[in-house]
Amino acid sequence: MRIIEAKDYQDMSKKAANILAAQVILKPESVLGLATGSTPIGTYEYLADWCKRGDVDFSKAATVNLDEYRGLDHDHEQGYYYFMNKHLYSKINIDPSRTHVPNGMEPDPAKESARYEALIRSLGGVDIQLLGIGHDGHIGFNEPNTHFDVDTHCVDLTEMTIEANKRFFASADEVPRQAYTMGIGTIMRARKILMIICGEDKADITAAALCGPVTPEVPASILRFHQDVTVIGDAAALSKLPR
Ligand code: GLP
Fold this sequence. Notes:
By secondary structure, the protein is an alpha/beta fold.
């Protein structure tokens, strides 16, 4: 695992965008695993800017997102497809038919989970997976005590996650109680992982994930068993790592 300390959010975002851009330059048909949340917004801004300038060409790339709320459609403003379209897809020259997010409207969780997993396989697997981290150590929506070997599935969100994500909704009551997420097994099959973390509020969970025991209680801790992980954190997020 490589741990890179960034000066601040902008620096973290630029470094992460550089790694994703390099991936697409080296392999134009890359499959990018992408994430939502506040953390990657700056990374997407850099990618959009560099694409506009002609420095990165996404025309042959494909994307698969980590997760989507169950019950929200592509046009729902708090849904993750809408987020991705707003922050990235609409600003780069990617073919929309090659951008994928789990279908939150599929009523049969087993069917949608199997479809999404098969889709990822049919694309040849994920070349690089971008991840943020939740305050409880979740990655995607893999909450604490999820089995490490599961594929895409439907999860019940924890109160902590509902509380953290209510800022995007009118109230906590409006936050969906379930979501589709790539499983830890799906994430671990990505050829490379790029995790970005910022803010003092993530310092404790960052130290637990990167330096504590590898345990399902801290889902992100499993990443230490992946062969190619880069973590970029700002100084505040990395402040509790042993020096
Ligand atoms: C959500 C997403 C995660 C994301 C997490 C942290 O729960 N499902 O993929 O990593 O939020 O979000 P933020 O970056 O806003 O702290």
